[in-house]
Amino acid sequence: MNHWWLSLTALERIYACIAIPATLLMVIQLVMSLLGLGDHDGDGDLDTDGDGIPDGPDLDGDGIPDFPDADGDGVPDHDVHTGGDGGDSLSLHLFTLRGIINFFAVYGWAALAVSRAGHPWIAAILTGLLLGTAALVGTAVVMRLFLRLQADGTVDPLNAVGLTGEAYLRIPEKRQGRGKVNVVIQGSLTECNAVTDGEEPIPTGTPVTVIGVSREGELIVMKKTERGG
């Protein structure tokens, strides 16, 4: 290793100093992802505000939700960052932490390889920039594809209308506050924020029926007995 380092020119050592740390970071990210540490228990959702509600998936590993849950309904707000395109914006995921690390790793090794092959320094730099940019864009494309899959599997609260569930946290009357309900939506038991238009609060454990969805994405529920059981 020492012989290899001493054989490098000053410029090649700069390439190596770029490539080696970036590659180590890539490996650390990969190991953390495999162990489920990079996506917070492996579900890809973060709770950055501490309210117990996932803010959205963090697939790029930068600690910032890709789709935050601004309305607190437990459903990632895909249009908040994408301008309503459902996560199809490539520029959205171009300059992520993972993408930048990949850029420097590929840039450093590519430039070093070209330089070691005896080509001029300008060719090494241009090749590194070209391949590094390709890695950056490729990472963004992969992230977009993953987010599309995430969006396809996101629970749609509208699918809960007409279903029955159970109050998990007390729901105040006349929408004076919100509680929580557990409802099986799209085959999965889901905890959702809920409000009621009823004259009385709905205690915890009460069977409820979902009759609508508010503009904020909260389920509008009523006691199941109010609809005749």
Give the tags.
alpha+beta, 17% strand, 229 residues
Can you lay out the helices and strands and say which pair or pack?
Blueprint: H1 2-6, H2 10-34, E1 45-46, E2 56-57, H3 79-82, H4 97-116, H5 121-152, E3 164-169, E4 179-185, E5 188-196, E6 207-213, E7 219-223
Model description:
It is a single chain. The chain is an alpha+beta fold and 229 residues long. The protein is 38% helix and 17% strand. It contains five helices and seven strands; from the N terminus they run H-H-E-E-H-H-H-E-E-E-E-E. Strand 6 and strand 7 form a beta hairpin. The longest helix is centred in the middle third of the chain and has 32 residues. It is rod-shaped. The termini are far apart.
